[in-house]
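@channel sequence for tomorrow's demo:
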Amino acid sequence: MKRLISFALVVMMIGLLAGCSCGEKKSEQETTTIAWVKGESLFHETLRGYASLCQINNKKGIKAKQKLTTGFGEVAKEKNLNKRIGYTFADLNGDGTEELLVSLVDMKDKLNNYIIAAYQYTGDGVKRLLEGWSKNAYYLMKDKLILNQASGGEDDAEISKLHMRDGGFEYVSTLAMKYNKKGKINYLYAEVGKPENTKQFQVSKKFWQDKCKEWEDQVDVNNVKLIKDFKH
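structure tokens (generated this afternoon):
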């Protein structure tokens, strides 16, 4: 009898745990859906503009003025833009309202999947926060920071983690690679906000490469929807 009671209790506990797990997943899915509905509502006109321009691109190309006002820049020359432009939402500054991130999508290589432009919804409407291109690329990280890879040519490269605050972005950490006067590469690293490390200090090449890989591995390419699927 005791064995039967014990078995029944175990079964009941498993059922309760399974119920909790399913409930949590359902709640997570509902939260994500609500966030998308809200985001698409707030940024409706902006998203509609991108969707329209992607359609135009397939027929006669995007005009220079339209490239500048949207942040398309160099990616406007890409073919089939409606299959390559994606968008997602992320609360970058923790104020409870998601920002819109429009990206060039490449599922084979996430570091080709960079942000073209990021937008914030304010009391005055929609504000563009940043614009990215291949030599000044921005990526969304899993912790909602922004990763920026910038190149100033063969002798200058920088990779930084940025945090959104007060409608702009502040450096959190940065890695730089620069040539000195003797032609030797200096590998530099700094964590902004720590009094002892407010200036870049020299590190080994291995430290620099390992830190770069660590940051790149944190790039988040999930939860992106193609602009062609936007219901406008």
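heads up for whoever presents: The helical segments are 2-42, 44-57, 64-70, 205-217.
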